[in-house]
Amino acid sequence: MSRWLSLSFASAWSRRAALTLVVFSVAVSVTLLLMVAQIRADARGSFSSAVSGVDLLVGSRGSATELLMYSVFQLGRPTRNIPADTEERVAAVPGVSWVLPLQHGDSYRGFAVWGTRTEFFERFRVRAESLQWTAGRAFADPRDLGLKSVFELVLGADVAERFGHSVGDAIVLTHGAGGPLSHQHTQSPFTVVGILAPTGGPVDRAVLVSVEGFEAIHLGWGIGELQGLGGRMVDHEPAPRAAAIQELNPTEVTSLLVGLESRTRVFAVQRAIEAIPGEPLMAVLPGVALDELWRALAIGESSLFLVGGLVVLASVMSVSAVLLVSLSLRRREFAVLRAIGARPQGVLFMVLLESLLVCSFGLLLGALAQQVLVLIAFDWMRVEFGIVLEILSVPKEGWWALGASLLLSALVSLIPAWRAYQLSLKDGLNPPYV
Amino acid sequence: MNATVQPVCRLSGVQFGWPSCPSLLSIDHLEVPSGGTLFIAGNSGSGKSTLLALLSGVLQAQSGECRVVGQDLSRSSPAARDRLRADYLGVIFQQFNLLPYLSVLENVCLPTSFSAYRRQASRARYGSERQQAEHLLNALGLERSFWRQRSHQLSVGQQQRVAVCRALMGNPDLIIADEPTSALDESNRLLFLELLLRTREEQGAALVMVSHDLRLAPSFDQTLILGVEGGDT
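The joint structure predicted for all components is written out below.
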């Protein structure tokens, strides 16, 4: 066994120029397949752990996946808003422990602005862990502290890092999705009071303000009465005006995050919320909505997997083709081995071993390249798509893919190995001179 | 070993033919004693290579008895014939004897890695395979500077001498050489033959050699000329 291994290796090494290329082709194909497997697994992991503290997501009746995607991940189309008073009505449903509004629609230099309440920082969980602070604190609740706190703002880790913001910076928010044509609300500069620690969830890319602050962005645009609030707030601290605060109460919110007293009652609460008269509501279990999404994406994912698999098959076949071509030049080599007493089966084994060696080397190289790629793409995937890739952790599908590729290469390797056996049997010690 | 008692090969009533040439080879009786030498000559197509293929167990005679080192190859399985070659035979080709991706020393040591029997024989006589390989290389006039080289760095004559070393490695009973001198020039031919004969004698191996160069025949105990009736002298 070991003598065949060392002979195979020495023989392959002597033809390394041609074999290097096919090793790379196997490596590239395996990188592709593993990447598909990993992104699939990690996308699921990242998305389902991003909302782990929330039992129900309430929004306007429609597509559950769209609501979840838009209100938590800022992906896809905006959903219809629901009246702000829904918050109280949902809170009144028996079994509901807490309700938090979420407002979307504005952005800060490409990052979504979330309008919510101070309580959000205690309730929201990512990967079952509560939010931590890198610096500062949560914004104060304007309902308690009045106008003084309306323009306080908290930044997610990525936003703070991208723009180099720290606590105390003044920030101007834009209305709409951002970009050069968006309206700049120069009247409403906010002050950073806190920066969240990285979580790996979408909250890293969020700019968080109070619902009143969110409303102020809109009111400050074109409503003269509040224009004076803006830039000088920190310096002058105008006296809280009860009337103004009430004007900042939102009339609509995008969705509501709901926590339950007991998870066992989730379906009863879901029915009760959906039965609230007025605007038709939908209460979504985030996990169920994600499952629906994965089911919808299954065909796409499977196609990608299939394409990856076929590319691996093609590259493994190219290994066999290269070995097959080389066989005619190796008939003397086989004759020498036969003269020493090697059986034709030994020659078969040697070629099989070489093919497996080349394929395994390609597999290994591909797996390594994939991990390097994961390291390189890690930040980009997290910031752009909210997918946290696991480093040095091949998902179950990845192991399956590797195993299947190895099996496939063993099967395809039988072709040149069998041909070598036949040649060796036919030639014996007298191969044709080539 | 029983080699001293019985001949290293004994053929009787051996018939072999291809579909295109049904009676290519017919040998009534042929015997090479242990340690003896046999020279086989004959025109192209007279069955020289076929006879060597029969002796080395690659082909099987259609009738008759073909005993090599006591084993009747006509009644042996392919695996047993391959085994016999690994344990008791050394083969030298016309050229291209060496694996191009191994060094001279690695090439010489190959037979002992394929046969435990030869490995033991080598160790019993020389202490280690490496020592026998060095002894043989020195005996064939290949200095230490060649040992790490690859076959493409050697001349044809040097390659053929390395092939002799490999064939003799682990003390086989019989060396089969198929026109080993035909790729050599005139001056090297006799020198090579002399080295081959002397070293195989020292190692105690019998030699069956095919060549069309009849001038080499006097150095052998027996000569068989194929294609001519009663050519056995």
